[in-house]
Specification:
Helix content: 25-40%
Oligomer: single chain
Number of helices: 2
Distance between the termini: 25 Å
Radius of gyration: 11 Å
Strand order of the largest sheet: 2-3-1-4
Order of helices and strands: EHEEHE
């Protein structure tokens, strides 16, 4: 079952940030769409295969803060 969640993420400022986060979430098997203007990341993921805490940790491991 696919779920969608929008996270508030601080520290994103450029296309490198977008690529870093979207790429890291894709490696987990999810799909992320970064909105720099709103400081949000919308993630679509299969909750039977991927926990939201794992997604948050992966984004934080890239150097950003999930609020």
């Amino acid at each position: 079952m696919m779920q969608s969640i929008t996270l508030n993420v601080q520290g994103m400022s450029c296309n490198h940030c977008v690529n870093s986060i979207e790429g890291a979430v894709k490696e987990l098997g999810g799909y992320a769409k970064v909105n720099l203007a709103d400081s949000t990341v919308t993630v679509e993921y299969d909750e039977s295969k991927l926990a939201i805490e794992t997604i948050k940790q992966t984004i934080e491991d890239q150097g950003y803060s999930v609020i």
